[in-house]
Design a protein that fits this description.
Number of helices: 4
Strand content: 5-15%
Radius of gyration: 16 Å
Distance between the termini: 26 Å
Shape: elongated
Largest sheet: 2 strands, parallel
Number of strands: 2
């Protein structure tokens, strides 16, 4: 069973990409997988490589930390009568969410 999250550090992009593809392939078909990148380009390329390799792609999703934070914040902000702000406020929300996860 694959781990829910994995951090892999290596000086070469090829090694990082191969490790990410191995992680992606370890998930059984139909399982929801969320790939988060600094931009959408990296996750897009990884999911494309996985699909081309014959892995199941149903349930795969790509996003960035900023987009994910905005998406998660929309409901609670709406209920509080607030709105999603710009990139700076989004980054602040992400930082706060990460800090709360560490607690």
């Amino acid at each position: 069973m694959p781990t829910q999250a994995r951090i892999f550090a290596h000086p070469t992009a090829a090694a990082r990409s191969d490790a990410a593809l191995d992680w992606l392939r370890a998930h059984p078909p139909g399982v929801e997988v969320l790939v988060i990148g600094e931009t959408l380009d990296g996750p897009h390329d990884l999911l494309l490589r996985g699909a081309r390799a014959g892995s199941a792609s149903m349930g795969w999703r790509r996003t960035t930390m900023s987009l994910l934070a905005s998406e998660l914040a929309v409901g609670p902000l709406f209920e509080a009568g607030l709105a999603v702000g710009g990139p700076l406020s989004r980054d602040a929300v992400v930082a706060r969410a990460v800090m709360r996860l560490e607690d």
